[in-house]
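ingest -> fold -> write
write: protein_1
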Amino acid sequence: MYIAIESFLRSMRIERNASELTTKSYSEDFSSLLDFFQDRHGTVPDPAEVTVGMLRAWVAYLHECEYARNTVARRLACLRSFFKYCCREGITENNPAKALRTPRTGRRLPNFLTTDQISTLLDAPPANTAQGLRDRAILETIYSAGLRVAELVGLNTQDWDRDADVIRVLGKGRRERIAPVGSYAARALDRWMEVREPDSSSDPDQQNAIFLNRFGRRLTARSVGRMLEKHLASAGLEHRISPHTLRHSFATHLLDGGADLRSVQELLGHKSLTTTQIYTHVSTRRLRETYEKAHPHARSRQNAVDPD
């Protein structure tokens, strides 16, 4: 089992360009399954020995441990992919995970900030310190380009085209896209680059990063989260906001401003339009206004004329 899993993860990295985060999540899913087998059966079976009943027992165990439905669904997707790979490679003859039912997960509506809240947050970092200039550039860039935090910290200096005001982004599945950068973010980046000082003793990957920590090395996603929490507190905003909330706000404000869904999909780097459609709920106000203007029987009650 261990050899098959390692071969599968290697295939994910090479053939499907899976990110480190994805392979790490899959590794954790496999660890949960292997620990379960060891505890229940005293040994880890070969892939060909795994039955539907054994996997169902594991799923029941996950529910007993009160794992979130999204977590269970992801682990089942991981197993299906693994056994599909095993069938393709001749390791097993069938896919025992294929018969398992995925729990209904629903889809949580994305949290987002209003334009006024965004303005308050973006003004929170001080403009008279190097760290403040960096933080302003980070927040402006995430909101302006709709970046994931992993995409942000992965940016290198050569990824930013100053003349065209665009950045080259390496997204999920190592898919590249070009993201436009607005004038506010471009100015913030310019000011940060003027004071940016990489650690000359570090390796080139560290020195090339656009966003650096106080030691002059590439900033981490966790550091961005801590930075955001600090500025949320100083701005008096909700503490549960994450860097991803700025990405949600980016998509929400685009749609509310009249952007079409397909364009927003491209800007976000979503592989499927279905993923982007979740943001349409936030445009209810705009849709209502359009409806009232276009439909002959949709005028507001105050302006309606009684036909009698």
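write: protein_2
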Amino acid sequence: MKTRAAVLREMGAEPPYAESKPLEIVELELAGPGPGEVLVEVGAAGLCHSDLSVINGSRPRVMPMALGHEAAGTVADVGPDVTSLSVGDHVVLAFVPACGHCGPCRAGRAALCEPGAAANAKGTLLSGAIRLADGSGQPIYHHLGVSAFSDRIVVSERSAVKVDPSLPFETAALFGCAVLTGVGAATRSAQVKPGDRVAVFGLGGVGLAAVLGATVAGAAKVIGVDRLDPKLRMAEGVGATHTIPAGEGAVDAVREATDGGAEVVIETVGSASVLAEAYAATRRGGQTVTVGLPDPSEMLEIPATSLVAEERVLRGSYLGSCVPADDIPRFVALRAAGKLPVDQLLTGTLALEEINGAFDRLASGEAARQAVVF
């Protein structure tokens, strides 16, 4: 069958992307679903910095690749041995296909699924298959097992989670990455407790979701830090009790607002220098959680003795330490109950043909979360 997709053939294009056009909208051949796989008609797909980092080359991937990893849609067909999904189901797609059998999966750490990570690194589905090809027969690799910037996609059953069909696709898509990563960082990784003081450095889609997560967990203070005033205003709209402009003086301002430092500080920017600031804004006995993915060449410097003498915790959080099959329905239920206003994270929608310019808006910080609507 045919599908339209946004394909990246070479990394490292110079911005503005509206002019250099690193993503090419092309018609591809899409093979039907194999064993344990499903065909999904994509309803909406979110634009994330993880896509941008492949475009600019800071997260190298095999090329050529059909990008996109945060999406929702409708199951249109199922392959052999699919047991959890049926044609017509609405699904959210998660960017780590959890096999359910490896050591991390058995330990409840689906984000660290070993076969899933290996498949993502190779640009294949969980099975090892590649279902996309161009007109000449050249394989087109899958981005994180999803390749969401496409009319239709084939994914592993393990990448898809059934959700309430009343959930709008452009909102549902956000649960696959921004919500899992941000809300999960606060509620799963950091396990924010009622009364905690929490600071979030970086208020893009994931950072704003972390503000939502800290708020729903009962934090007494939630402090948003960002360099852009519109992002600070958005943070106030989703629950931040304080906002602080990023830059010189931000760490001192957080420490002052929290009487010496926050119990939990979440960093979402993907910068070693910002992570160092987040660590400095964390109080004795507190924890610093990072979900950002810096360039691999960046190194972090912190006072080593503080980990022991101040009983600090510095931890990474991938996919918000979530189990998508459990946490996506839980977060969707919180939205339905009015406790998790995820819809407010979405700052714009667009057609697939507009995607290059939309990445300019993401790179500049103008947009928090945008979604391609099919």
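write: annotation protein_2
The chain is about 30% helix and 25% strand.
Residues 2-176+341-373 form a domain with the Quinone Oxidoreductase; Chain A, domain 1 fold (CATH 3.90.180.10).
pipeline exit 0
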